[in-house]
Amino acid sequence: MAEALWTGVAEAYARSFAGLCAGAIPAVLDGLPKGGRLLDVGCGTGELVRAARGAGADAIGVEPDPAMAAMAGTALDDDVVVAGLPDLPLAESGFDAVTANFVLNHVDDPRAGARELARVAAPGAVVRATIWGSTPPPQAVMWNGLLDSVGAVRPPVPRLPPGRDFDRSAHGLAGILTEAGLAVTAAGTRAWTWRVPAHDLWTGLTSVGGFGVLWRAQSAAVQARLRSAYDALEPRLAFDVECVLVEARVPRS
């Protein structure tokens, strides 16, 4: 269910929210061992893999959406395996570092996903994961304000059942990594400013994830009013965003 919201939107994501997620990459890669094997799970457009290679890692990516995997493969000049959590076609204990940048908040079974991150990581390896916290991000606050201003309907956005969901916080993410057998070594937040052209963000807001669900639920008249309200904004937008980042290690014994 959660993953289905991100299928078939590769081009729109690349123009919009890929730039948002890329803001966490420096923190995700900071201080990782040089020269080790790194796996990026849910690699999206391949930007984290590219940055990791630039920093000296032997990095590869896997991505569940075929169109996104093809896009990343072209950018990286390398094959990207089409696969996603919790079923990666990779041997256990094969990587010195495993990253999941905004992935565990978009899978159908986050705990099973965390166990798979642990499975493919070697003893002593670092696992780093990011998610968006429970506080609505500023781009969502902006979008919700526009929806309210034009009288938009609010259909329910698909959510995980309570038994599979987890608290979207540093404590909650650390908890599911601990349940997966990992030893959490750091848990906190990272902040940055995301700047995006309004026309690129519009592409994402009207197609990707829960934003797309809300857009598609509106009548043609409401969509037209929403577009007019959006066009009145600045041509380039800036949002002060924050994510949760947790680091854990695979026990050596």
Description:
The protein is an alpha/beta fold and 253 residues long. It has a single domain, classed as Rossmann fold (3-Layer(aba) Sandwich). The protein contains eleven helices and seven strands. It has a seven-stranded mixed beta sheet with strand order 3-2-1-4-5-7-6, sandwiched between helices. Helix 5 links the parallel strand 2 (58-63) and strand 3. The two termini are 36 Å apart.
Please specify the SSE layout and strand pairing:
Elements (H helix, E strand, L loop, with lengths): L9 H6 L1 H6 L2 H5 L7 E5 L5 H8 L3 E6 L2 H11 L4 E2 L12 E7 L8 H11 E12 L5 H12 L20 H10 L3 E15 H8 L3 H8 L3 H12 L4 E14 L4
Parallel strand pairs: 1-2, 1-4, 2-3, 4-5
Antiparallel strand pairs: 5-7, 6-7
Query: What structural class do helix, strand and pairing data support?
Result: alpha/beta
Main sheet overview: 7 strands, mixed
Beta-strand fraction estimate: 15-25%
Which percent range fits the helix content? 25-40%
CATH architecture annotation? 3-Layer(aba) Sandwich
CA-based gyration radius: 18 Å
State the name of the first-level CATH class: Alpha Beta
The total tally of domains equals 1
CATH topology name, in short, is Rossmann fold
The number of helical segments is: 11
Strand numbers in spatial order across the main sheet: 3-2-1-4-5-7-6
Q: How many runs of DSSP E, i.e. beta strands?
A: 7
The geometry reads as globular
Q: Considering the protein shown, what is the CATH homologous superfamily?
A: Vaccinia Virus protein VP39
Q: Uncertain spans, ≥5 residues at pLDDT below 50? A: none
> How far is it from the N-terminal to the C-terminal residue, by CA?
36 Å
Helix/strand order: HHHEHEHEEHEHHEHHHE
- The whole-number mean of residue pLDDT values reads 95
